[in-house]
Specification:
342 residues
């Protein structure tokens, strides 16, 4: 595992590697915390995760009224009887969706909060002028601050990606049902009519997008925070801008989740197919970062309901590339603005 991580680390830019002095300096404040405080932080995060997922289980089972694992227990298939739903992956999604969505929203908010006060903090430490006077200092400082976000959010990212990897494993397992013909059954009535091998390839695109979206979304929020830190350098204004952006971000998430789930439940029967396709694509890109689509049963129901949604995987993968390019553009704009106006 260590060798694998080292190899992955070699692919990072020099300023994003843990051994880089600027990045080590940025991470020093966390590393220098007393061991007891770091332990309390870790225990607090673990407790939050446990509470969220216990709450998710109670919500999915109507507080054990609609499904009680104690009365439904089957020792021959304990995992299946532990969760509600018609199969294991459906049960896991019923339990995991809302807790994971909350963790994702928390990660997006923290990514913005970790960078939005960058300039005001540097000015308070009286290091901003020295940073600007150093050739390439602002560029290196901003990029290492941006990279620091991913290191500091490691516990959240591990939790988010653990769920996604398990759901992808569930997709691969589901595809083996009915002697490997499960995907043929899912394609019945889907527009357009495509061969199963192409559908499998499109699923691979979706799974790739499902793994990339949390990274590109968090990177975007961190870059936006840096741009806001340059645009609103006084702390009071940066705090106000931060609150406005966070409120807008949470409103988008809640609105998209409610609208997309409402549509699939039949709440908007007159919505044109084109608008429905756009809604579900936006939901996957900005709402839950394709979390719901990593449940094959739900994703197949979207195929059957809205024509051409089987191509959502390609659309979301293209979105991740566009979001990465936009993140780089915002980051460069923040750097140039900081170098020009201070």
């Amino acid at each position: 595992m260590t060798t694998l991580m080292q190899r992955l680390g070699l692919q990072l830019p020099e300023w994003a590697r843990p051994e880089h002095p600027h990045l080590r300096f940025e991470l020093k404040s966390v590393a220098q915390l007393p061991r007891r405080r770091r332990l309390l932080r870790a225990l607090g995060f673990a407790l939050v995760v446990v509470v969220l997922y216990v709450g998710g289980y109670l919500q999915a089972t109507d507080f054990l009224q609609s499904y009680n694992p104690f009365t439904s227990w089957d020792a021959s298939d304990p995992l299946r009887t532990l969760f509600p739903g018609q199969n294991l992956t459906e049960g896991l999604m019923m339990v995991w969706f809302w807790p994971t969505l909350i963790l994702q929203a928390l990660a997006a908010v923290l990514a913005l909060a970790m960078t939005v006060n960058t300039v005001s903090e540097q000015k308070r430490r009286q290091t901003w002028d020295n940073l600007r006077a150093t050739e390439g200092g602002v560029k290196l400082g901003f990029r290492t601050r941006w990279a620091t976000v991913f290191y500091r959010l490691r516990p959240l990212l591990i939790a988010i990606f653990a769920i996604r990897i398990l759901l992808i494993a569930g997709i691969l397992y589901d595809l083996t049902a009915f002697q490997g013909r499960y995907i043929d059954l899912l394609l019945n009535g889907v527009t357009p009519d495509i061969p199963p091998i192409l559908a499998a390839l499109l699923l691979a695109f979706l799974m790739t997008a499902g793994l990339l979206l949390p990274l590109t979304a968090i990177g975007f929020e961190a870059a936006l925070g840096l741009w806001l830190s340059v645009t609103f350098q006084q702390r009071i204004y940066s705090v106000m801008a931060q609150l406005i952006v966070i409120a807008l971000r949470l409103s988008i998430i809640i609105g998209l989740v409610v609208a997309a789930r409402g549509y699939m439940d039949g709440a908007f029967p007159t919505l044109p197919d084109g608008a429905a396709w756009g809604l579900m694509a936006t939901f996957g890109a900005l709402g839950d970062w394709a979390l719901n689509y990593l449940h094959l049963g739900y994703y197949a129901s979207v195929w059957a309901t809205i024509p051409y949604t089987i191509f959502l995987g390609i659309a979301l993968l293209i979105f991740t590339l566009a979001q990465s390019a936009l993140t780089e553009w915002i980051l460069n704009r923040a750097i140039r603005r900081a170098e020009r106006v201070g």
